Amino acid sequence: MLSRREVLAGMAAAALFPHATGESRMDQRISVVTLGVRSLEAARRFYGDGLGWKAAFQNQEISFFQCGGMILALFPRDGLAEDMMADPATFGRAAISLGYNVREKNEVDPLLRRAVAAGAKILKPGRDASWGGYSGYFADPDGYAWEVAWNPQWRLAADGNIYVH
Amino acid sequence: MLSRREVLAGMAAAALFPHATGESRMDQRISVVTLGVRSLEAARRFYGDGLGWKAAFQNQEISFFQCGGMILALFPRDGLAEDMMADPATFGRAAISLGYNVREKNEVDPLLRRAVAAGAKILKPGRDASWGGYSGYFADPDGYAWEVAWNPQWRLAADGNIYVH
Fold it and tell me: What is the ipTM of this complex?
């Protein structure tokens, strides 16, 4: 049984050295989404020239786009494989979608058309969704799926942040 | 040649109906990252019980986690395939990493250990990176790669938002 003094000392230590307790906290956030791409040039053309995005930093190896409070990175697949110690031969089509939500239902189709003009392929044309909104999907030059969606149940703030409630 | 009146009418129409001009703007943001998972139960155990994340909404089909100003969704792979009109048999290992940046170098290893305790596999132990920081990778139960990184060149704000500059 610990004395009161030992308990208090332990609490103080936990406050000062949270990792010492084994309780390491992982907040709910994603800092970066890194897409492994076959051609950095082609991906930059799509997101840059095509969608009009401006890189906050880029060099011969990587591009970083500031996306609100997080970052989208474009990085060659082989470099990403090496960095995460994966065999690039094991890579396949990602079972992931990236969502881009819009304020009005009638913004979805024009954005899908813009993506196509930039070199995307339509995976699914815009249509009414079972969940009460409207959405369609395009694939970027590497096949990564983007869902352009209008979801009237979520709150899309002026700064582009989106909230479930 | 357009008259001044026609030009002004066109400008007014473009302001009122931006889509009519064909210029549809896609801001730099990602509203949602949806991970297609083999087992919704297992994925919920990992992110929920394991990492301590709380769903803002969930039902039998999907979980949504509010992550700063964006949303992480867990959704069964087959449902995602159907929604994006993809053949789930074409899915493979994603050439994508999700980054979680921390404030201090010494936060990386404890977080990797916490992920392992939650059921993750280490892809790469924490180590000094060529770009001046320190990072390691873990894979979630579906194999999605998370990089836990300390990057002293980026600004990690109090609210968890991260900025290249």
Answer: 0.88
